[in-house]
Amino acid sequence: MNKELISPEPLDKMLGLQGLGWLQRKGMAMGTITLTFKHYTDDSGVEHLDIENHLTGGIPGTQEERTFDGVERKRSDMHFGPQLFYAKRRVPGDNEGLSEFSIKGWTEDTLQNGLIETQIRADTPSGATGWREVHTWGIQEVNGERRFVRNIDFEGPQNEHIQIALYFDYLGA
Questions:
Q1: In 18-158, which residue ranges form alpha helices assigned H by DSSP?
Q2: Spatial distance between the Cα atoms of 94 and 50, rounded to a whole number of angstroms
Q3: 96-105 as b/e, with b when 16 or more CB fall inside 10 Å?
Q4: Residue ranges of the alpha helices (H) in 19-140?
Q5: What is the gyration radius of the CA atoms in the chain, in angstroms?
Q6: Residue 70 burial (CB count, 10 A)
Q7: Are 155 and 131 in contact (CB under 8 A)?
Q8: Which is higher by pLDDT, 21 or 172?
Q9: N or C end of the chain: which has fewer CB within 10 A?
């Protein structure tokens, strides 16, 4: 993650609203996050993106396994606890239900291939208040360089609203 392009305050606030403690958030802010992708289509023709998150500073990373079929699945990790999520690739031009923030800035090849959308929400007990993130992923050109970007539209447990873009240095395929 390229920290020079990301404002730390909204990221820290979002992580705090998701239940991460101050020490854990500071450790994440000091470390470097690197994503390693495995992109493939299974024997049934369904697209997948498996992502390993590597963090420096001794903080364990997580494994994200995204199946682009729009089916909601359960997962749990050490940082965010139990979650429900889905992932899908949007048909080019289909922006229904996405904010202006979610759909801006993408490269032409990202739009032609279909924007990646994933939604993640806290898997809370019935009636409990949780959080929700709507992500759009793809490539954006920033300062003349192609970067992998996650635009995140976040809703907190008390209806807090944060929009943040996470920029990663893109090393290509």
A1: 22-30, 100-103, 108-113
A2: 24
A3: eebeeebbeb
A4: 22-30, 100-103, 108-113
A5: 16
A6: 11
A7: yes
A8: 21
A9: C
Token pair in block for residue 159? 């209806």
Kindly state the tokens that stand for 79.
């940082």
What distance lies between CA 144 and its chain's CA centroid? 23
Planar angle of CA 70, 75, 77, nearest 5 degrees? 140
pLDDT reading at 82 higher than 70: yes
Report, as an integer, the average pLDDT of 34-43: 92
Output b/e per residue, 106-125; b: 16+ Cβ within 10 A.
beeebbeebbbbbbbbbbee
Looking only at the bridges linking them, the beta strands covering 116-122 and 132-142 are: antiparallel
Maximal CA-CA distance, the chain:
47
Residue 43: exposed, middle, or buried by beta-carbon count in 10 A (0-12, 13-18, 19+)? exposed
> How far apart are the C-alpha atoms of 27 and 142, rounded to whole Å?
26
Structure token digits, residue 110: 């990202």
Tokens of 15: 């992580």
pTM as predicted: 0.91
pLDDT at 131: 95
Distance between CA atoms of residues 39 and 60, nearest Å: 22
Map tokens 């996650």 to a residue.
150
The number of residues in the chain equals 173
Q: Which residues does residue 89 pair with via DSSP β-bridges, in sequence order? A: 116
